Amino acid sequence: xxxxxxxxxxxxxxxxxxxxxxxxxxxxxxxxxxxxxxxxxxxxxxxxxxxxxxxxxxxxxxxxxxxxxxxxxxxxxxxxxxxxxxxxxxxxxxxxxxxxxxxxxxxxxxxxxxxxxxxxxxxxx
Length: 125
Hints:
Elements: H1 2-34, H2 38-47, H3 50-56, H4 58-78, H5 87-124
Helix pairs in contact: 1-2, 1-3, 1-4, 1-5, 4-5
């Protein structure tokens, strides 16, 4: 029971981390430059040069994060989910499932924002 909850929780947090990293590398700089804050982007890439490397490998980042989202969706949403009979443990189990679903949906929204900013908007503009 506890290992099942910890696996689902780990999958949710891993998906959130991956989708947030795609947002940081690709969507956030585009949004800041669009708002006229190019100096902020220049200073950030000077302080954290890894962002340039992440942007150069955006296809791999988005592919890897999409794979993590699919795996975490299987862990959180599609896998048969059974909580214990004990009322206290059942309540904890249900709360954990609700939070895992919230984190997964947040991760998916961040991924969609990053994907749109990196791959869809350049085609439109």
